Amino acid sequence: MTPRERWLKTVRREIPDRVPCVPDISIMVPIKMQKKPFWDYYINTMDGSPIGGHYNNEKMSKAYIDACNYFGVGAWVWHVKCNVEDNRVNYEYKIIEKKSDRIVTRTTMHTPEGDLWSETLYLIDDPPFPISKYIKNFKEEFRFIKYFYPPLDNIDFEPVFLSKKYMGESGVNSIGIMAPGLTHLDFFVDGGLGKIGLIYYDYPELIARYKEMHEEWSVKYLKKIIEAKCCDEIETGGSGLMTWQSPKITRELSLDGLKMITRMCKENNLISHLHCCGFEKELVKMCAEETELDIIEPLEVPPQGDCDLKEIKQKYGEKLVLKGNLHTSEVMLADSKTVEAASIKCIEDAAESGGFILSTGDQCGRDTPHENIFKLVEVCEKYGKY
Predict the structure, then answer these.
(1) In sequence order, which residues have a C-beta less than 8 Å from that of residue 179 and are 6 or more positions away?
(2) Which among 198, 264, 201, 270 is positioned nearest to 231, based on CA atoms?
């Protein structure tokens, strides 16, 4: 079976030839393999403008797919999205610092109601890091949040179709629609968790308006994606969703969105796939009992997470396809014997009767030994056959 066939058969709750092997090597490993500065995959070094604009990155997508083919693992392609035309907003890019090991850019967002700006640090051998984000005073600048939800009248899905064609039978492609929540606000609100947490308690009416705005836009966007028939999956959730916010806040801000997204996916034969690195045990229960989610990952083990793969399989394996959960440092940065033993245990804990994809507990680190990724495939072929 091809990686794509194996993935789709698993998600349909059928039995494939063996356990799918889909470690998360999404950014760092593929870019390092290119032996070029990391910033070459994010920005144009002449003017600081982002590669692929604000919505897609074909260059990174190809590097990732090529890496998956090299290792023989399944691809989960989320790097390319559709282009959305927004005539309300213009962006101006400027490099404000350039050294041998770093580049700092400033992006000015021009809107009809004024300007916002952000700054980003690009390193030669690591992914970028935001220094300052657009919204710096949530109450005073709340009116700008609508500009992060572009009109959906003119959408170009061609980049998604081209990426899917390049991927072929190597895997599946996904478009992200995050649930509303504190982790989503972190994309454009400055100050990190500490400040965003205070915003949640200080401005409940504004948070409620943000939630409503996000959900209305997400429904419209998902309808467009469904009509275009351009992807296999919708990725939802959000990095650190249950680490950034309590189960109570998750119920208040995020659960309605998750219910809506997973229901629409189910009704239209589209896979729903939730990513939530960090703490996730309570979210697994919530999704299994209250949503129509198909796949959940990465089910991280302590101390980064709180998941026991065997326990989750026993409790929720009939409802959810499980994807995980090898420790990205203690296992994936160790020797190949450690990787083999941990992988076998994952298969023993969760592969029975299908519904399991061997993966890592979040993204593999930049310096993950290649032999350890090859070892995952070897283990699946030797011990993961049905």
Answers:
(1) 236, 237, 238, 241, 253, 254, 255, 257, 258, 261
(2) 270
Sheet holding 75-77, edge to edge: 75-77, 171-176, 233-237, 271-275, 295-297, 321-326, 356-360
Mean pLDDT within 131-142: 98
Q: Which residues contact 212 (CB under 8 A, 6 or more apart)?
A: none
pLDDT at residue number 85: 87
Give 56's pLDDT tier (boundaries 50, 70, 90): low
The tens digit of pLDDT for each residue in 9-18 reads 999 999 999 9
Whole-angstrom distance, CA of residue 309 vs CA of residue 100? 44
Distance CA 49, CA 243 (A): 32
Average pLDDT, the chain: 96
Q: Does domain 3-39+53-86+135-383 have CATH number 3.20.20.210?
A: yes
pLDDT of residue 53: 57
| Residue labelled with tokens 């109450």 | 139
pLDDT at 131 over 90: yes
**How far apart are alpha carbons 241 and 45 in whole angstroms?**
33
- Residue 282, H or E segment: helix 281-290
Residue 11 near residue 265, CB atoms below 8 Å:
no
User: Cα separations (Å) of 19 from 112, 331, 351?
Assistant: 52, 19, 7
Helix (H) or strand (E) holding 26: none
In three-state secondary structure terms, 205 is helix
**What totals of helices (H) and strands (E) does the chain contain, helices first?**
14, 13
Domain boundaries in the chain? 3-39+53-86+135-383
Closest listed residue to residue 273, CA positions, set 359, 205, 340: 359
* Vertex 83 angle, CA 78 and 84, to 5°: 120
Residue 154 CB: number of other CB atoms within 10 A?
11
Q: Round to whole Å and give the CA distance between 386 and 31.
A: 34
